[in-house]
Amino acid sequence: MNKDSSNIMALAPNTSNKRETVCIFGTGDFGRALGHKMIQSGYRVVFGSRNPQTSSLIPKDAEVLSHAEAAQKAAIIIIAIQRQHYNFLIPLAEILHGKVLVDVSNNLKINEYPESNAEYLAQLVPGAKVVKAFNTVSAWALQSGTLDASRQVFVCGDDMKAKQMVMDIVRALGLTPSDQGSLLAAQEIENYPLQLFPMWKFPILLSLGLTAFFFFYCLIRDIIYPYVYENTDFSFFIAISIPNRICPVLALILLALVYLPGVLAAIIQLYRGTKYHRFPDWLDKWMLCRKQLGLVALAFASLHVLYTLVIPIRYFVRWRMSSQIISQALNNKTAPLNNTYAWLSDSYVALGILGFFLFVLLGITSLPSVSNNVNWREFRFVQSKLGYVTLILCTAHTLVYGGNRFLSPSSYRWYLPNAYMLSLIVPCIVLVVKFVLIFPCLDKPLTRIRQGWERNPQYSE
Ligand code: NAP
Predict the structure, then answer these.
(1) pLDDT tens-digit readout, 370-383
(2) Where are the domains of the chain?
(3) Best mutation site among 81, 89, 173 for ligand 1, i.e. most ligand atoms within 8 A of its Cβ?
(4) pLDDT tens digit string along 216-226?
């Protein structure tokens, strides 16, 4: 049998061998969608409803009975009903004794109740074995079959056998169960679908704050200063020039901030002489959102590339070039080719192109579909080694751009240096500390600490 045909066999539901009967309480959107999917996968489905009548909406191979009748037909009962209606289960406690109750419910707010819905269900029906599952899958995804993004189903429960039974159903539906442990994990599982891009909050707030700061900084230096001293109106710089100053500055700072926590973690581990002590909370959180910081940095770098590409077609640039040519012609003077400037300009552009290329490569390898296909060593090689090369190239790109202007007094307006000079502070700190850390006298103990060696066992938890 060829490989393709075996894959097709694996995907096709086994409808010839009927699986066990599963009961679903509630004929709402989720109950119906799950019931439909289960019937497709070969299960017999019986619905328990307040109104035990079939309708055109109910999957046609399913039975609809009263709650009590339906519960007696199956060992597993899926409660597809909102938590606030769970009270109706109390009179059914005797029938539900020993049954596996699957809590699929979600709340409207994070930590809405003191205990999770699943724990509340276990308190209401103490004789039943409660398992939390399916709450991260939507009725729409079940119905439309677009489960690619949410194939993972978190499962937790105190009874191992009951949890196994539910995980078997999850697998039979073509989904991937992820055992999260005991019912204590239910609160976290219930909070999961309510989180709004939790890892993006810090990178986005930070980049908004930095954007506002550098916008006003450039406004003062590049628009207000010339207006005050030269009575020149450069307010149109707001459209392209200032964004094209902010974007590379932010890209470089955020990229350096991706690598700064790793360097800080290394210093902390060296100081403590152990890796078995938790990092401070702020560092842990910072480390967890490095990928998002890197992606925001890449977005700013891409904008910088676009803004730079339009420079030749800008009216102001064309006007300035033609004015220079006319003034040279009027004065009968030509500027000779300055080889140093030519080298500086080409090197700065070349470093920028290479830096951006590696930046894009880093972004691509951080995508789950790509990172899932490389092993841990390959992933670390790209994200750490190539990441540092990217940081070096982008820092060098900015340094060469500055050229010999760093010490020139004309670069300072109201004592304020150019924004790109400020952007070099964090990357230079990261690169210098990283350079120091690769000296064998520090690298060797750090490697040993990361392999589990402890210098100061009193720090271990
Ligand atoms: P729904 O469309 O409002 O259906 C809820 C069902 O609960 C009703 O159809 C009704 O079924 C039953 N019900 C309502 N009031 C009741 C009461 N007082 N006593 C007993 N039963 C009552 O809600 P849903 O979207 O299907 O959601 C059901 C559960 O699945 C919720 O806990 C939800 O958090 C969870 N969930 C939903 C989704 C989703 O995408 N919709 C995704 C994940 C989890 P009968 O008329 O048959 O009695």
Answers:
(1) 777 778 788 878 88
(2) 21-194, 198-330+337-451
(3) 81
(4) 999 999 999 99
